[in-house]
Design goal:
Strand content of chain A: under 5%
Strand order of the largest sheet of chain A: 1-2
Order of helices and strands of chain A: HHHHHHHHHHHHHHHHEEH
Distance between the termini of chain A: 59 Å
Low-confidence stretches of chain A: none
Shape of chain A: globular
Structural class of chain A: mainly alpha
Oligomer: homodimer
Amino acid sequence: MISSILLALIAILVAAKLGGALAERLGQPAVLGELLAGIAMGALPIAGVHQLEFVAHDRTVEALAQLGVILLLFEVGLSTRLADLLEVGLSAFLVATIGVIVPMILGWLAGRWLLPGAHPFVPLFLGATLCATSVGITARVLKDMNRVGTAEGQIILGAAVIDDVMGLLVLAVIVGMAGGGESTGAHIGLVTAKAVGFLAGALVLGRWLAPRLFRVASRLRGRGVVLTSALVTCFALAWTAELAGLAPIVGAFAAGLVLEGVSFSELLPEGDSIEHLLLPLSAVLVPIFFVHMGLLVNLGALAGGSIALAAALTVAAIVGKQACGLAVVTRGADRLAVGLGMIPRGEVGLIFANLGLGLTVHGERIMDQGTFSAVVLMVMATTLVAPPALKWSIGRGRRAAVQDA
Amino acid sequence: MISSILLALIAILVAAKLGGALAERLGQPAVLGELLAGIAMGALPIAGVHQLEFVAHDRTVEALAQLGVILLLFEVGLSTRLADLLEVGLSAFLVATIGVIVPMILGWLAGRWLLPGAHPFVPLFLGATLCATSVGITARVLKDMNRVGTAEGQIILGAAVIDDVMGLLVLAVIVGMAGGGESTGAHIGLVTAKAVGFLAGALVLGRWLAPRLFRVASRLRGRGVVLTSALVTCFALAWTAELAGLAPIVGAFAAGLVLEGVSFSELLPEGDSIEHLLLPLSAVLVPIFFVHMGLLVNLGALAGGSIALAAALTVAAIVGKQACGLAVVTRGADRLAVGLGMIPRGEVGLIFANLGLGLTVHGERIMDQGTFSAVVLMVMATTLVAPPALKWSIGRGRRAAVQDA
């Protein structure tokens, strides 16, 4: 059994490093190269190479990929100050709200326009698929460009957390509508209470508890106690977030914020930092996430997708999130960068599309595979367009700043 | 799905650090505490706690544990010089040979004595379960005590590699005997050729190829290229070793030896080393292996084991490997430490016992569950006795050296 995991890891790591290096040589973010390397690896069966076909659906690889994105958001949380995040709180809230409402309306319009004969639920589902931002891509680009601590970075991250809560609400509403809707109100209240309760609890209780726990843990001797304690904090909050209905990465980000209160300089040898200890872990695991994301793109399954619908959804997704930029009220923040950073859609959109696919009215499916494929194409397009666009926009901002000076 | 992995990792990491710290406080090696923490976690269902029962058999946890021991032997290989290993080559070969023959005879005698009515194959199988040393435990103790580079350390590691090849031969003979044995001779030849071919190929070709590959890889830009290249080398040789019929850890150890020829000081920033980059990865993954090893001990299943047989096998296992010490011809090497370091038995012994369990003559099973449990008890006892014994013996050697000076 271990031999198949070894083969998968060899293939993924080689693909990630070659793809990443090639992308960087072309002036693009490494993450774009990793995604494309994954897509290329996923397309190997089309060329008759089947030896690596198992990698996309291997449960261990999937778990490692998930640990990778959890670690990425943990690192991003560690380099975020809660005070900075709260300072841009209003902007983040407005960005998240506009970023849910506008794409939803545009997606609904696209559905009404291009699928005139469909059940009224279908355009609603299409709108819902456009709500939630997939923050992994943006977090990676911000991190690689050292822009996590900027106003734009903080607004995007704050908005992504709020966005995840709102995505839950949209899901609750939609499931309620599809299921008949008698107890929707109470259900929405419960979902909101759990999500908000987790965030508040993690940040208040966690920030009080973490320094105390680390002081106790540091009394244990032995190799790697501090690193292990940090990882356990991260995994514990990711796990609790999932229990609360949120994405595990939201918990991991919260864990990073929580550990801001721990003074690692007392616990670690001179010159070492928790970020530095995490680097080798994330250097291996994070690319696994992005290559795996590329691997899951099944080019063959896209053949039946409506190109017109996919294009309309992609435009709605991109334009819809650009409206976010207008909601930024923080001075000096780059509105274009915020809008571009909110573009990537991911698993949440696919979850909604999947729900729509399973929906039946009077025993008949109301959404077909072609519509689903159009959503997948939209997810792919937004995922691939965001890294270069964001990099360009940040570079533009820097160039302008240099000219001003 | 990710939530169960997160829960498993939290439980394992907390258990490992608590167990390891407690053992160290009592003057014992951390690995003993990790093993006992795993056994305790595995016994939770007896106390009515079932929430963590899935951890022992979760495939992802198992894969992470395997990656942990692969990484451990890779690290040990990195701190081994091939020249030093070849220098103690004769001692290592004699130690491995005596360490296979004497325990096999003692195990066979124990079977003949305590299971007088059993099929003649049964004592043979019992003897075979005592052959192969499980080097993970010893490697960990040597590494934690900074003794990998000593003559004892090198002899044990060299013997463990040869031991693995000999274990393959014993397996080939036994399977041949059980299966009828017409083509045993050719089969043994093939098995030997594959194993020796892998080792020679890896060391000769690998040491020529590795510096060249690393020079090419270092031209790729991007984070973590050197670490990733080192891991890919390790995984590739572990994978190839398994293809050649050897244990993946033998391949990982060979990968460490191969990378000795690469001058990382040119490839890494000042003050960084590949060992240093691997530390955070191994600090997390290596304890997972040892806790998982403890977890697999099913105390409930041991109830039916014959205590007399288990005790006799354990004595045979320990005494048999002490004979190894006498075969050490290298001057200045501590013979007792070598003998104690060869004590732990592990998965190879269990594989043989399992083969015996599945063996039928005229449709009847010739080995019962009680005999199998006795083997499991022997594996447990040798695993638990080795770390404190080895630590004591190394400490004794050091004290004697101080008194001489």
